[in-house]
Amino acid sequence: MKFFNLQNKILNSLMLPFVLGSVILVAVEVISLLNSYVTNSFTDMLYLHVETLKEILGYIFCYFSVLMLTKGKSSIKAFAAVLCIALFNSAFKSAGGREVSYLLALILACVFIFCFNKLSTAISYIIIPIASLLFGYATGLLSGEIESMLLNFSNSHFSDNVISAVLFGGINSIFSLFDSELFSNLLYYKSAGGSLLYNEQMITGVKDLFERGYSGNLVSVYLSGRYYQMFALLGLSVSVANELKGIQKKVLLIVSFLSLISGNLSLMILFLILENILMLVPVILLSMLSYACAALLKLGVGHLGSGSIIELAMTLNGRWVYVLAGSAVLAVTGYFCAKYFIEKNGISDCLNVYIPTRLNSLLKSLGGIENIIRIKNGNAEVRNPQLVNFLNEDYEIRDNIIICKNNMIADLEEYLE
Prior knowledge:
With about 425 residues, the protein is mainly α. About 65% of the residues lie in helices and about 5% in strands. It has a four-stranded antiparallel sheet with strand order 3-4-6-5, with helices on one face.
């Protein structure tokens, strides 16, 4: 399961970028709200500057991942990768792309890491810029096609019912992983989000409707679910954090609670996916459930920014009991959903290592994954032999080396290499 170990290495290299990125997103949300509710030249200028700050996130993610995962931890290679991300961004925008995602930058960084580790330095410096330009141009062209397809799909499949809320919640959670508003903006500001004659004006897009005082079904279907989604995913991430150790645990909790303040769930979702890609399934299911509940309850609570807890306090209407009670229920649902999913899929309690459920009892009898130093030649070297349960398995001990006569320990080796 080398893929899971690669995920773990990438995640460990990004602890500082996750915290820094979360702080930047909080600043973006605060300035965005200020610009939405107090419009003047100063807030406009401030918003432009903080949006520019957000755009450097991709460079930060690329720099640290390449720095930490290339042999020798070369800052020169990391800086070269950052310059190649700049080439990618230029090609992406020239081909019609509107947004540059830090997840795309991270995917490119993985290509850079592979080239630096597997190829000679000279060949790497030739291949990487070319790959950046080609990939940037290709994804820029593709983003235009995707937007057209999404607009056609949205116009024909979305209305003001619960099914639309479920579809929107699921699809938008995937785009949130890319920190992209490509899909949501079609409903927030374009005809896919509804057009109504409101106060003798034809208004298009659910956010524009909400800004002018509308709080009907469209707001409940496309905007209210964000608040439930925040707490559902918070419960999910707290449950995952309980399975983590050390710095990962602290960073996930920091990112999760800053996501509540910013309303931007992209870094929280990215952390969960890097912890284990299988976590994408409960993220999508909980998002769909959150938007469905908001639509069924007709909350009518919207947002002009990202939908942060700050904005929730500012826009909370007479249905605050439903908002608070629903948020609490979904947070608990998210917590136990993650707990069940982790146990069901054999995701261990230590740094993203995948262990099949058939080996869980063996792992427990050895004192847990954190008690194992290494496995070599079918034998396990452990930190504390007293934690080993000799009643469960047929073990022989020599110092801190555990030998299993039925050779079961050898099955663990491929997952812990």
